[in-house]
Amino acid sequence: MFQAPDELFAKLYLFYAGNAYGLHGLLYCTVYDGTQFTTQVVDGAGGTKGQIVASVGYPAAVVAPGNSLRVYYQDLDHDTLREAYSPDGVNWNGFTTLDGTGGISGYQGSVGYSPSAIVHNNMVTVFYGDDTPRPRRASYRTALH
């Protein structure tokens, strides 16, 4: 569960994996605005903005840098670490594979296990596991939308 600061959204955001439409492992975002809940699929069911059709989403790490939301999660079908970006907590318009095959970090093994994320000095750092016995990997995002 993620509580955005009042000056950003004044809403409660919950990210989780679930099944629908005959697909498994969709990443959902449920938002509570103080009176009602609304739910949408963020990734896993495909789309026109970089979403994929794959089992994704659990567990997810969430941060709120620069008046936006960023969610980090594993694509279980391709063993990659993904990022979803929303400028307002409603419209998800940026999807990136950060690490693993096809990712911007270039590692070719299985990655994205148990992500966690922090924001420091307007830079997001994501920590996550890979398929080696070494300590956790890190991905740094400095170009915030």
Helix and strand content put the structural class at mainly beta
As residue ranges, the low-confidence spans are none
Strand line-up of the largest beta sheet: 1-2-3-4
Q: Care to count the β-strands?
A: 11
General shape: globular
Show the helix and strand layout.
Layout: E1 2-3, E2 12-20, E3 23-32, E4 37-43, E5 61-63, E6 69-75, E7 80-86, E8 94-99, E9 111-120, E10 123-130, E11 137-141
Antiparallel strand pairs: 1-2, 2-3, 3-4, 5-6, 6-7, 7-8, 9-10, 10-11
Question: How would you sum up this structure, described in words?
Answer:
This protein is mostly beta strands and 145 residues long. It has one domain.
Can you give keywords for this protein?
145 residues, mainly beta, four-stranded antiparallel beta sheet, 11 strands, 0% helix, globular
Characterize this entry briefly.
The protein is mainly β. The chain has one domain. It has strands at 2-3, 12-20, 23-32, 37-43, 61-63, 69-75, 80-86, 94-99, 111-120, 123-130, 137-141.
